[in-house]
Amino acid sequence: MSLLTPEPGLLFWMLISFGITVFVLAKFGFPAILKAVEKRKNYIEESLLAARKAHEELAGIKETGEAILAQARKEQADLLKEASLKREMMIERAREEARVESEKLIVSARQQIRAEKEEALRSIRNEAATLSLTLAERILREKLGTKEEQKNMIDRLFNEMDISRS
Protein backbone atom coordinates (compact mmCIF):
# COMPACT_ATOMS: atom_id res chain seq x y z
CA MET A 1 0.00 0.00 0.00
CA SER A 2 1.27 3.14 -1.04
CA LEU A 3 0.35 6.52 0.14
CA LEU A 4 0.00 7.90 -3.27
CA THR A 5 -2.34 5.30 -4.75
CA PRO A 6 -5.66 4.88 -3.00
CA GLU A 7 -7.45 1.63 -2.72
CA PRO A 8 -10.57 1.12 -4.85
CA GLY A 9 -12.88 0.72 -1.80
CA LEU A 10 -11.65 3.95 -0.29
CA LEU A 11 -12.02 5.65 -3.62
CA PHE A 12 -15.59 4.37 -3.91
CA TRP A 13 -16.56 5.64 -0.46
CA MET A 14 -14.83 8.94 -1.09
CA LEU A 15 -16.77 9.36 -4.31
CA ILE A 16 -20.06 8.57 -2.56
CA SER A 17 -19.24 10.99 0.28
CA PHE A 18 -18.30 13.63 -2.24
CA GLY A 19 -21.50 13.02 -4.21
CA ILE A 20 -23.64 13.22 -1.06
CA THR A 21 -21.84 16.40 -0.03
CA VAL A 22 -22.32 17.86 -3.48
CA PHE A 23 -25.98 16.79 -3.44
CA VAL A 24 -26.59 18.30 0.01
CA LEU A 25 -24.76 21.46 -0.96
CA ALA A 26 -26.63 21.65 -4.28
CA LYS A 27 -29.98 21.00 -2.59
CA PHE A 28 -29.62 23.18 0.51
CA GLY A 29 -26.37 25.17 0.49
CA PHE A 30 -26.10 26.57 -3.01
CA PRO A 31 -29.69 27.89 -3.17
CA ALA A 32 -29.18 29.67 0.17
CA ILE A 33 -25.82 31.03 -0.97
CA LEU A 34 -27.20 32.03 -4.40
CA LYS A 35 -30.22 33.60 -2.72
CA ALA A 36 -27.95 35.61 -0.41
CA VAL A 37 -25.73 36.59 -3.35
CA GLU A 38 -28.80 37.59 -5.40
CA LYS A 39 -30.19 39.54 -2.45
CA ARG A 40 -26.86 41.31 -2.04
CA LYS A 41 -26.69 41.98 -5.80
CA ASN A 42 -30.22 43.48 -5.75
CA TYR A 43 -29.36 45.60 -2.70
CA ILE A 44 -26.21 46.90 -4.44
CA GLU A 45 -28.15 47.65 -7.64
CA GLU A 46 -30.89 49.43 -5.67
CA SER A 47 -28.25 51.39 -3.79
CA LEU A 48 -26.55 52.39 -7.05
CA LEU A 49 -29.91 53.36 -8.56
CA ALA A 50 -30.78 55.39 -5.45
CA ALA A 51 -27.35 57.03 -5.58
CA ARG A 52 -27.84 57.93 -9.26
CA LYS A 53 -31.30 59.25 -8.51
CA ALA A 54 -29.97 61.26 -5.56
CA HIS A 55 -27.16 62.57 -7.75
CA GLU A 56 -29.65 63.58 -10.46
CA GLU A 57 -31.91 65.23 -7.86
CA LEU A 58 -28.91 67.01 -6.42
CA ALA A 59 -27.94 68.23 -9.89
CA GLY A 60 -31.54 69.33 -10.45
CA ILE A 61 -31.60 71.09 -7.09
CA LYS A 62 -28.27 72.71 -7.88
CA GLU A 63 -29.60 73.94 -11.25
CA THR A 64 -32.80 75.14 -9.59
CA GLY A 65 -30.76 76.88 -6.91
CA GLU A 66 -28.60 78.55 -9.53
CA ALA A 67 -31.70 79.59 -11.48
CA ILE A 68 -33.29 81.00 -8.32
CA LEU A 69 -30.05 82.79 -7.47
CA ALA A 70 -29.82 84.22 -11.00
CA GLN A 71 -33.47 85.31 -10.80
CA ALA A 72 -32.84 86.90 -7.40
CA ARG A 73 -29.82 88.76 -8.78
CA LYS A 74 -31.87 89.93 -11.76
CA GLU A 75 -34.69 91.08 -9.49
CA GLN A 76 -32.17 92.82 -7.25
CA ALA A 77 -30.68 94.61 -10.25
CA ASP A 78 -34.18 95.55 -11.44
CA LEU A 79 -35.09 96.84 -7.99
CA LEU A 80 -31.87 98.86 -7.78
CA LYS A 81 -32.48 100.26 -11.25
CA GLU A 82 -36.08 101.13 -10.37
CA ALA A 83 -34.99 102.71 -7.10
CA SER A 84 -32.38 104.73 -8.96
CA LEU A 85 -34.97 105.91 -11.48
CA LYS A 86 -37.39 106.84 -8.68
CA ARG A 87 -34.61 108.71 -6.90
CA GLU A 88 -33.77 110.60 -10.08
CA MET A 89 -37.45 111.38 -10.63
CA MET A 90 -37.80 112.60 -7.05
CA ILE A 91 -34.70 114.76 -7.38
CA GLU A 92 -35.96 116.17 -10.69
CA ARG A 93 -39.41 116.80 -9.20
CA ALA A 94 -37.83 118.52 -6.18
CA ARG A 95 -35.69 120.65 -8.50
CA GLU A 96 -38.74 121.58 -10.56
CA GLU A 97 -40.73 122.42 -7.45
CA ALA A 98 -37.83 124.49 -6.12
CA ARG A 99 -37.54 126.28 -9.47
CA VAL A 100 -41.27 127.01 -9.57
CA GLU A 101 -41.23 128.17 -5.94
CA SER A 102 -38.21 130.39 -6.57
CA GLU A 103 -39.92 131.88 -9.64
CA LYS A 104 -43.01 132.58 -7.53
CA LEU A 105 -40.83 134.21 -4.88
CA ILE A 106 -39.02 136.28 -7.50
CA VAL A 107 -42.32 137.40 -9.10
CA SER A 108 -43.73 138.21 -5.67
CA ALA A 109 -40.58 140.11 -4.72
CA ARG A 110 -40.68 142.05 -8.01
CA GLN A 111 -44.34 142.94 -7.47
CA GLN A 112 -43.60 144.03 -3.93
CA ILE A 113 -40.61 146.09 -5.11
CA ARG A 114 -42.75 147.63 -7.88
CA ALA A 115 -45.53 148.45 -5.39
CA GLU A 116 -43.06 149.94 -2.92
CA LYS A 117 -41.42 151.92 -5.75
CA GLU A 118 -44.80 153.29 -6.87
CA GLU A 119 -45.68 154.12 -3.27
CA ALA A 120 -42.32 155.85 -2.84
CA LEU A 121 -42.83 157.81 -6.09
CA ARG A 122 -46.35 158.81 -4.97
CA SER A 123 -44.98 159.87 -1.64
CA ILE A 124 -42.18 161.85 -3.32
CA ARG A 125 -44.69 163.48 -5.71
CA ASN A 126 -47.01 164.36 -2.83
CA GLU A 127 -44.06 165.80 -0.89
CA ALA A 128 -42.89 167.70 -3.98
CA ALA A 129 -46.41 169.00 -4.61
CA THR A 130 -46.82 170.02 -0.98
CA LEU A 131 -43.39 171.62 -1.00
CA SER A 132 -44.15 173.39 -4.29
CA LEU A 133 -47.46 174.70 -2.97
CA THR A 134 -45.87 175.84 0.26
CA LEU A 135 -43.07 177.51 -1.67
CA ALA A 136 -45.49 179.12 -4.16
CA GLU A 137 -47.66 180.34 -1.30
CA ARG A 138 -44.71 181.95 0.44
CA ILE A 139 -43.50 183.53 -2.79
CA LEU A 140 -46.98 184.83 -3.59
CA ARG A 141 -47.41 186.24 -0.11
CA GLU A 142 -44.12 187.99 -0.39
CA LYS A 143 -44.80 189.42 -3.86
CA LEU A 144 -48.48 190.10 -3.35
CA GLY A 145 -48.34 191.72 -0.05
CA THR A 146 -50.80 194.52 -0.97
CA LYS A 147 -54.35 194.39 -2.30
CA GLU A 148 -53.45 196.18 -5.47
CA GLU A 149 -50.69 193.71 -6.34
CA GLN A 150 -53.11 190.86 -5.72
CA LYS A 151 -55.73 192.42 -8.02
CA ASN A 152 -53.17 192.96 -10.81
CA MET A 153 -52.01 189.37 -10.56
CA ILE A 154 -55.59 187.99 -10.76
CA ASP A 155 -56.37 190.12 -13.82
CA ARG A 156 -53.21 189.04 -15.58
CA LEU A 157 -54.00 185.34 -14.89
CA PHE A 158 -57.51 185.73 -16.30
CA ASN A 159 -56.13 187.35 -19.41
CA GLU A 160 -53.70 184.52 -19.92
CA MET A 161 -56.50 181.99 -19.56
CA ASP A 162 -58.63 183.81 -22.12
CA ILE A 163 -55.74 183.87 -24.60
CA SER A 164 -55.02 180.17 -24.23
CA ARG A 165 -58.73 179.27 -24.75
CA SER A 166 -59.02 181.17 -27.99
Quick synopsis:
With 166 residues, this protein is mainly α.
Summarize the structure in words.
The chain has one domain. The chain is rod-shaped and about 200 Å long. The chain starts with 7 loop residues before the first helix and ends with a helix. The protein has 166 residues and is mostly helical. The protein contains 2 helices and no strands.
How are the elements arranged and paired?
Layout: H1 8-143, H2 147-165
Tally of separate domains: 1
Structural class: mainly alpha
Number of β-strand runs: 0
Q: Which word captures the global form?
A: rod-shaped
Order of helices and strands: HH
- How much beta, percentage-wise? under 5%
How many helical stretches?
2
Rounded mean pLDDT is: 88
> What is Rg?
65 Å
Largest sheet: none
The separation of the N and C termini measures 193 Å
Oligomer: single chain
Approximately how much helix is present in the residues?
A: over 70%
Show unreliable segments. none
